[in-house]
Amino acid sequence: YKEAHKLLHTAIVDNPYHARSLFQLGLINSLYMNQEGMTASYFEKAVKNNPQFCLARITYGHFLVEQEQLL
What we know:
This protein is mainly α. Helix content is 77%, strand content 0%. The protein is built from 4 helices and no strands. It has helices at residues 2-14, 19-33, 36-49, 54-66.
């Protein structure tokens, strides 16, 4: 996952509005790095940059419920 994280971070530097890269970084942070703050930030940016990205919206909502930030 470390190599994927590095490559996705490079992709975001090249295009900070690419929702899929932001979403995938959020997943890596959530599943492997246990960084809730960064996870929320990446998911939020992905949804903001592409509101029609349903998987990102659903995953972000699920993440917020797990963090007890959305009841």
